[in-house]
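Re-run with default settings, no changes from the original entry. Doing this only to confirm the output is reproducible before filing.
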Amino acid sequence: MTDPTLLVAVPLLASVVPATLAFVRERLGWPVALATLLVQTALAVDVAADAVDGTPVVADVGGVPAPFGIRLVVDPLAAPFVVLVAVAALAVLAYTRAAGPRSGPFYSVYLLLVAGLTGVCVTADVFNLYVFLEISGIASYALVARASGGRAAFAALQYLLVGTVGASLYLLGVGYAYVATGTLAVAELAATVPDADPALVLAAFGLMATGLGVKAALYPLHTWKPPAYDHAPAGVTALLAALVSTVAAYALARLLLSAFTLRLFALAPFVQPALLAAACLSILAGSVLAYREPRLTRRLAYSSVAQFGVVLVGIAVATPLGVAGAVVHLVGHAAMKAGAFLAAGVAAARYGAATVDDYRGLAREAPYLAGGLAVLLFGLVGIPPTVGFVGKLYVALGAARAGAWLPLAVVLGSTLTSLAYFAPVVQRMYVEGPPPERTGTDSPGMRATVAGAVAATLALGVTAPLLERTLAPFLEVVL
């Protein structure tokens, strides 16, 4: 059985190497990152295979037991996200080999991001979750700033400022949680919350959930996302789109289900309607903003605001099918959105495409690229047999079983609204205009990564019921 400590230690320790080797030879960073992420993926798959059997894989760092030490836990809820972080980072790494950036410091920060995100997934302590959020946040800001030009630097600065506010709110909530319960361990919080001061508990959850809402970019806390995704290098954008907000949404689910538990809804009945209202607002506002945006990368960014609203509906209805749908949608969204950004990166590198109108006639010049992008966009809409359809279906069924009829209507309506802003892209590729003129080059590795995302979108659509059945025993216990 693999020690979960290695999931954090391997990328964290390896992150020092590429920057150090850059003094010898700049290009040595990529092989080091590749070897590290191959090991990381093998470790993640091994730990997840043990965890999905139903018995959590637990490790106390340095042998120091909780509450004095740092406890790491991989259970059925954490397992898919541990694997997702490793696999997505490995896939995007293949894209960056040709597309760049390729410096040693870039790959050091890249591995540091993997370590931070993995730590968020496996930590069993809400303060250590803050530490790992900050590690991944600092790495994200640095990666966005790797693009040349003042706009990328400004986007990174905006991301830094907004992210710092979110992290500060979360940390303040951690303080309230400790004052209310005398503990920061997730398992002990679950046991002590019912007997704690309700006002302090509500303040703790509200601040922590808001901080994570900033990281997940729920409306109106989303302002950092469009400029960061638009101005960062394509590979960085794909990595951030696949993982950063996804892991933040996972952390929010963990906070509600395992730390504060559903007793919070009994303690304060308005919390669940407030979460559902925030989710519906994010879906509607994200859809409107995406529809009005002419640049494809920003349209994709705004669509994430809506997609994470769908995820929050699944978490907030707190039914086994709804939460399973949220998990499926998170994993599927990571594959689809990363693939869409990578496809946009290929189109930008080869044809200089940036706005939706720039995609006119793309199918005639690059039929495979256009076909792959169309599949990914229709997956984000929620059309079968993609994983986007299965995730939305589970969330909708979960909302129906909870009697949450308005959120159900909004989730179903999100399919039509997302079709309204993604269908024009497909229309321009296949129906309108002459083929675009080639202005640059890409590489087989870049195209292969897009193809892998398309394959994952379809494969996850078929295998998603297996993930739902794997989560079912765990969700029956916590819900």
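Residues 444-478 form the longest helix (35 residues). The two ends are 28 Å apart (CA to CA).
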